[in-house]
């Protein structure tokens, strides 16, 4: 919740005038060579709005000037008169303060008066949260301020592109994120229950109440009042304790307050009606609510930081980018629709969203402010089409690499990597995979926190976390259902919740075979193909199936267990409990088993080979022996390759893909045998299907990253 229309200026150091929506910015501005001076104006002058300006005074900011610029009336004419009154009063203040830069925040009608005054008085303007799209008159005001502003700080990549499309200078746009997220993502209050009880009563529990915040839609006041009435009726029927905040002072707000009083909301036992909640307390209230409902930008923007369910009513925020926690009821024309939405959303918990920020906006803004040359010409220039193809900036405070945190849980090692949008591994961390659940989950959290901190230093913006793990995985819930024998204490494990809660990032989880297929789809030889299959040849045998460009999970998340295709009825025992599976012949474990047998019979080593006493015999020794001419080792590898080839033939006959990709450390040793088996055993109609070896170095990490990168760039996964 922005503090609103209190403004700040500075002298004798660099002079700064701004809408101060978060005192963090003011504190850091002081430390960076700015001396803020505050002007109290707008709705902060109203005593019946709890004198919110006192919050700024309590943070040790002196209020130098008080301006009454809001005309009471709460209708369209009053809004126009308020803008006019501000335009009359502001010139005297600006002449006295003589700020070098004015920071204008958001899209309120009174912010337009600030921007207009500054532009006409040759004061540089920096606009925060420009380029966004909501769905009301705010859009027109926001874009009007954009055209008056000299510099722009936006919150999302889409907003940045909108600004560029509006012919704003690329070099004067900073993609920083929303400053309020700096406080949201660092907000920790173990005593949040005392705040909940203070505002909602002693008998209320966390996640068992609703926060309602609804404003008038100035372009359709009559409908917005009716929608508010339906909302209150639905909340009364839903019968949960509800904190209702009064609407803002836009046209139509007076009628909405009348609706509240007509329905007795202020005296209803299930409702607490308030005009203002301090920001720090409001954070805790929405973070621990069972649901938030209304049409405030707070719901679609800030609340996503906590994963709290949100019901967005009507068209006031229809154009906003939202996380998956937001359910839209665009035609909120019946009580039943709103009530149904409450039943669907209440009590759910969603992954934390970082669409609007990652908690580092204020440092970026201050760095941007420092880079502004006050000696350069004041006249702003527009960059008319054609727009530059490369919208990334060349200065370090703007250029950030969109990246994902990728986690690979293998039988031996636990790896975490920062992976860029292009599939480049910026940095990788490796540790031995602990044997117990507690040690493993703690190590994952520790490595991810360290990697996320390092990402800031490397100028990488982390969009989310992707996890590749062995076993059967429910990707919808982020839960490992059943693990392989290589990873102990790893059944029914919720990976999404602890990581999302710790990092405040969305988290995706999938099986390592599926991740390998996703890696090939985004970065490898499967890119652009509609249908292909990936087979992983490593310690075990796994795989992934892409059909019509989408990954196949199956009805019980057991699709693509290709290592357990049976190729012989009387073959060796497999770790799955069956026998004759591909994995029982061609996996690293199977080759190690055969290598040990040969070594125990003194039939493994040939001239030029040795195995140190302290070194375990493994698959690589068998491969080395075969290369040096050991006939028995060659026969074992040929049998293993033939079993894998028969499995590929079955895949070709079943799925008829356009490509089969062999991945993993053993792929290059099997490829020629597999192709021979296809020529001998496959139907002629599929013999032309290409079988290739993957050229990706870390398919599990790249696949884990692709889950994040595909989703956050609006590709549905």
Architecture blueprint of SSEs:
Elements: E1 7-9, E2 16-19, H1 23-31, E3 37-40, H2 53-58, E4 63-66, H3 76-97, E5 101-105, H4 109-120, E6 124-128, H5 137-148, E7 151-154, H6 157-165, E8 173-175, H7 180-184, H8 192-200, E9 209-213, H9 221-238, E10 241-245, H10 253-262, E11 271-274, H11 279-287, E12 291-294, H12 297-300, E13 310-313, E14 326-329, H13 335-345, H14 361-371, E15 401-409, E16 413-420, E17 425-432, H15 437-457, E18 460-469, E19 472-474, E20 479-482, E21 493-494, H16 496-503, E22 507-511, H17 512-523, E23 532-537, E24 541-547, E25 550-551, H18 582-586, H19 588-600, H20 619-627, H21 631-655, E26 659-663, H22 667-681, E27 690-693, H23 699-712
Helix pairs in contact: 3-4, 4-5, 9-10, 9-13, 15-16, 17-23, 19-20, 19-21, 20-21, 21-22
Description:
The protein has 4 domains: 12-176, Glycogen Phosphorylase B (Rossmann fold); 183-343, Glycogen Phosphorylase B (Rossmann fold, 3-Layer(aba) Sandwich), CATH 3.40.50.2000; 397-515 and 709-716, ATPase, nucleotide binding domain (Nucleotidyltransferase, domain 5, 2-Layer Sandwich); 524-694, ATPase, nucleotide binding domain (Nucleotidyltransferase, domain 5, 2-Layer Sandwich), CATH 3.30.420. The protein is an alpha/beta fold and 717 residues long. The model is unreliable at 1-13, 19-24 and 391-398 (pLDDT under 50). The protein has an 8-stranded mixed β-sheet, sandwiched between helices. The protein contains 23 helices and 27 strands. Helix 3 runs parallel beside helix 4, helix 17 packs across helix 23 (699-712) and helix 19 runs antiparallel to helix 21. A hairpin with a 3-residue loop joins strand 15 (401-409) and strand 16. It is elongated, with a radius of gyration of 31 Å. Its EC number is 2.7.1.60, 3.2.1.183. Homodimer. Homotetramer. Homohexamer. The hexameric form exhibits both enzyme activities, whereas the dimeric form only catalyzes the phosphorylation of N-acyl-D-mannosamine. It is found in: Cytoplasm, Cytosol.
